[in-house]
Amino acid sequence: YGGNPYGGGDNAVQSNPYTSVPASTAPTTQYAPAAAGHATLSQQDFLSRVEAVKADIRTLTTHVGQIASLHQRALSSPDATSSGQLESIITQTQVLNTSIKDQIKYLETDAARSINTSNHTIKTTQVGQLKSSFTKQLQEYRQEESTYERRYREQIARQYRIVNPDATDAEVEEATQADWGNEGVFQQALRSNRSATANSVLGAVRARHNDIQKIERTLLELQQIMEELATAVILQDEPIQQAERYTDQVKQDTTAGNVQLDRGIKSARNARKLKWWCLLITLAILIIVGLIVGLYFGVGP
């Protein structure tokens, strides 16, 4: 569970010597998303990606079952091997969940971009089915983790009573919520019973506390993925709507510009005609004035 579960990729997970999960469980959807503005997927390519995501969801179902089995093993007979296997498969599952979510969001965006094509209905239906199937599996995974979180706390309560048999119910409840990773809390619990058995039991309590913390992180990650999946349409549709609005605005501006250009051309033509008329009138006036002056001086004394 430690660190960023997405940073190492599948290779980091598969190098774990404790893992019992084969490399073939890596996400099958390895497509590179197309850049924004590119043509939408053909129906055949789209459906191929849908089938790949379905295969990943089936792998997720298998992982959830294996995680439940390893949790049960950790409760009944914990050992280093099962702990390593559990950590490895949960890390793989986190990577798988992120891959599935990203692929569904990509397909959802492609379906939205295909709104004016004959494939839009088919794509939208397929995306809806994928989201429903994936969400259902995430909820089952979350339910499994919540169940084992409760069972780990119950085991802490039983182990704490072994060390402190006279503890009240309130004290036991407080112990199930305590931060056993804190050395001060651990040492405080040992003060009343410093036997070797007590030290061993409280060590097991600390291990269960660590398991609970890991489960809590997993639950937060699952919640985040489900929220992102639910808001994918809103997040992806807005840029498309903005692009469509921009395209419409460009068309309107182009049409308005053409109208203004036509008016400008007509105005320019009218201005040239007016200029020529003014020139002709001026010439006519000059000719008339010249004739008058000529006649006046021609018939004079």
Describe this structure in words.
It holds the Pfam family Syntaxin. Belongs to the syntaxin family. Residues 1-25 are annotated as: Disordered. Residues 131-158 form a coiled coil. The chain has a domain at 43-230: Methane Monooxygenase Hydroxylase, Chain G, domain 1. Mean pLDDT is 77; it is low at 1-24. The chain has helices spanning 9-14, 43-76, 80-113, 120-163, 169-177, 183-190, 196-230, 232-298. Helix 2 (43-76) packs parallel to helix 4 and helix 4 crosses helix 5 (169-177). It has 8 helices and no strands. It is rod-shaped and about 150 Å long. The chain is mainly alpha-helical.
Name its key features.
mainly alpha; 8 helices; Methane Monooxygenase Hydroxylase, Chain G, domain 1; 0% strand
State the helicity in percent bands.
Answer: over 70%
Largest beta-sheet details: none
- In total, the number of strands is 0
The N- and C-terminal alpha carbons lie at a distance of 126 Å
Radius of gyration: 39 Å
Number of helices: 8
Q: CATH first level of one domain: which class?
A: Mainly Alpha
What is the oligomeric state here?
single chain
Shape: rod-shaped
* Helix and strand composition category: mainly alpha
Name the average pLDDT. 77
**In the CATH classification, which architecture of one domain applies?**
Up-down Bundle
DSSP strand (E) fraction? under 5%
Q: Uncertain segments of ≥5 residues (pLDDT<50)?
A: 1-24
Order of helices and strands: HHHHHHHH
CATH topology of one domain: Methane Monooxygenase Hydroxylase, Chain G, domain 1
